[in-house]
Amino acid sequence: MYKLAPSILSADFAHLGDQIAILEENGVEWLHIDVMDGAFVPQISFGMPVIKSIRKSTKLFFDVHMMVEEPGRFTEVLKDCGADMVTVHAEACRHLDRTLQAIRNCGMKAGVVLNPATPLCALDYVMDRLDMVLLMSVNPGFGGQSYIPAVTQKIRDLRKKLDDAGRSDVPIEVDGGVNAKTVDEVLDAGAEILVAGSAVFKDDIAANVRMFHGKFAERK
Ligand code: DX5
Ligand code: ZN
After folding, report:
1. 50, 137, 148, 214: which has the fewest C-beta neighbours closer than 10 Å?
2. What is the Cα–Cα distance from 92 to 7, expressed in whole angstroms?
3. Index of the ligand 1 atom closest to the CA of residue 179
4. Phi and psi (nearest 5°) for 118?
5. How far is it, in rounded angstroms, from Cα 213 to Cα 90?
6. Cα–Cα distance between 182 and 147 in angstroms, integer?
7. How far is the CA of 34 from the centre of ligand 2 (A)?
8. Is the CB of 189 within 6 Å of ligand 1?
9. What pTM was computed for the model?
10. Active-site residue flag, 97
């Protein structure tokens, strides 16, 4: 039920393959891949060639977070690069419904991402197109920021909203500032998939993964 999705934005890119191997050896199943365009968010991260090349060396589930204007332009190329799930920002899509349909039609899972200040009603008319909802708990663009406390109530509200809409099957992913100090609060509120960048890749990767998996085990 619970999953850790380490964000490779905080990895050491000179040793990316080795660090992904450590994740796999320690039971991680998802990899969170942050694509930034320097327009929707202030930074540029990495793009398709990186995704394609890591796909060759790992079987991990690729959860691609598109921090890109009009991400629908990249649906087919993401499929070719080996993405399993593509999450798109409601704020970045002029035609959100069409984009979600296109992602699913390509055979990938589709998720909507909401920035901290974006209300949950952005999801109202795409409830049947969703495989996951990602709530940002920082303003997107950088790793290592602090968790925004107001998002905890938003997670609770979203869980209720999904359940009330008959979408208890849709998990909530939370991204930003998730670490040893905030993990309990995020899980208590109803998140099932936790993105963590700096809290995974700083110092001992294996020990960091064990910390998160220990938290999950306490709740099973
Ligand atoms: C932020 C990215 C995150 C980032 C999280 O814009 O979407 O995935 O890597 O980093 P931490 O876990 O360090 O807050
Ligand atoms: Zn992310």
Report:
1. 214
2. 21
3. 12
4. -85, 125
5. 30
6. 7
7. 5
8. no
9. 0.98
10. no
